[in-house]
Structures are given as structure tokens and as C-alpha cells.
Amino acid sequence: REGAKGWLLSAHAIGYCSTQIIGGRLADWLGGKAIITTSMLLAGAALLLTPFFSGFGGTTGVGFAQVAMGVAMGPVFPASMQMMARWLPPSEPARACTVL
User: Fold this and answer.
1) CA-closest candidate to residue 35, choices 49, 24, 47, 46
2) Cys-Cys crosslink for 82: which of 12, 22, 27, 61, Cβ 3.0 to 4.6 Å?
């Protein structure tokens, strides 16, 4: 049971860390707004499907949903930084990053 709890607690982080660099590159290529929008929609879908995965696979299903949510949420932070770098004047990014 302790192993399952540890795996569930780290499942989101595993997915999140795996897509940060790719998310930043995609944000540079496609734009931050598109990446953030897509990421939030996919994360919402993973959240909505969590009860289904739980019924289908139990703890493993919930872990899978958490990994999927982490994969979807990974690009949000680098895409946000990309948007701020493009939209804010050179004197403001530090303040905006602090707020974010």
C-alpha cells in the first residue's frame, strides 16, 4: 500500500517533468497561447476521465490519469514564460515572473 501511495504522489511529477523542454520548444514554434490552451484542455480531459480510469484499473488507472495530466500540464510554465518574454517590455519580465 505504501508503494502505491508513493507512486500516486509522484505520478503527476513524472509526466510534468517529461514535457517541459518539449513544451518550451513547441511554444517557440507554435506560440504560447496555443500550447497553453491545448495543455489545459488535455489536462481537463485527464481530470474528467480519472473516475473512468479508477473504475477500469483501480489505483493503476488513477496513476495513469495523473501521469497523463502531468504530461498535459508540463508545457504550461515554459509557454507562459515564452508569452511573457514576447508581450512584456524589457523592464517588466522580472515582476511578472514573480507574480506568476
Assistant:
1) 24
2) 27
